[in-house]
Design brief:
By secondary structure, the chain is an alpha+beta fold. The chain folds into 3 domains: 44 residues, PTS-regulatory domain, PRD (Orthogonal Bundle), CATH 1.10.1790; 49 residues, no CATH class; 89 residues, DNA polymerase, domain 1 (Orthogonal Bundle), CATH 1.10.150.390. It is built from 9 helices and 6 strands, in the order H-H-H-E-E-H-E-H-H-H-E-H-E-E-H. The chain has a 3-stranded antiparallel beta sheet. Strands 4-6-5 form a 3-stranded antiparallel beta sheet, with no helix packed on it. Strand 5 and strand 6 form a beta hairpin. Helix 1 runs antiparallel to helix 2 and helix 2 crosses helix 3. It is globular. The N and C termini lie far apart (55 Å).
């Protein structure tokens, strides 16, 4: 009989069915070894693997067909377009492997900490990406308190603690303090790592 292809379950039965299937199958492996793990830990990993959608039709949005985008960002974009009486985009949920899911993080610091560090940091520098420091991993990397809804107004230091000069600080966005981290221009970046 064998195992069912998870991509087929996602395509035929949908997001909830693949989440339940993956949690159950992973738990079977751990329980067969006498290890008990709370479902919520596995659910977090599976949720991360299902975080992206692939755009089928852009509708009246500025999205591109085939573009991978965060599910919540996609929903926000569609909500704005619908509020303006436009046609929303359509997309399909994508099941990414653990490695691909980690490398497709919106945080380049979190992605760089996982694998392909040089490639991820180089692309971030070339594209002038800004890391909003919204997750746990990127805040731990630069030595900040984790975003646990406390101390969010604490100022960042000038040195981001990653061995390169970084533009770090706060930016006020819609009345809220938004931490940010940006790699320096590419020329400066290469000079700083030599």
């Amino acid at each position: 009989e064998g195992h069912v292809n998870p991509q087929d379950i996602l395509r035929i039965k949908g997001r909830e069915a693949i989440q339940r299937y993956m949690v159950d199958e992973i738990q079977k492996v751990y329980r067969s070894q006498g290890v008990n793990i709370n479902d919520k830990h596995i659910e977090m990993v599976v949720r991360r693997m299902l975080q992206k959608v692939r755009v089928d039709s852009p509708g009246d949005t500025e999205l591109l067909p085939g573009e991978l985008i965060d599910r919540f960002t996609f929903e926000d974009i569609n909500a704005r377009v619908v509020a303006e009486a436009g046609e929303p985009a359509t997309a399909q949920t994508v099941l990414l492997g653990i490695t691909k899911a980690a490398l497709n993080s919106d945080s380049f610091l979190a992605a760089a900490s996982f694998q392909e560090t040089t490639r991820v940091l180089t692309e971030a520098a070339i594209n002038g990406k800004i890391d909003r420091l919204l997750g746990l991993k990127e805040n731990v990397i630069i030595g900040r308190l984790i975003p646990a809804h406390c101390c969010l107004e604490e100022e960042l230091t000038d040195d981001a603690g990653v061995g390169i000069e970084a533009e770090a600080g706060h930016k006020e966005v819609e009345g809220q303090i938004e931490p940010r981290f940006q790699l320096p221009p590419l020329e400066t970046f290469w000079e700083s790592i030599r």
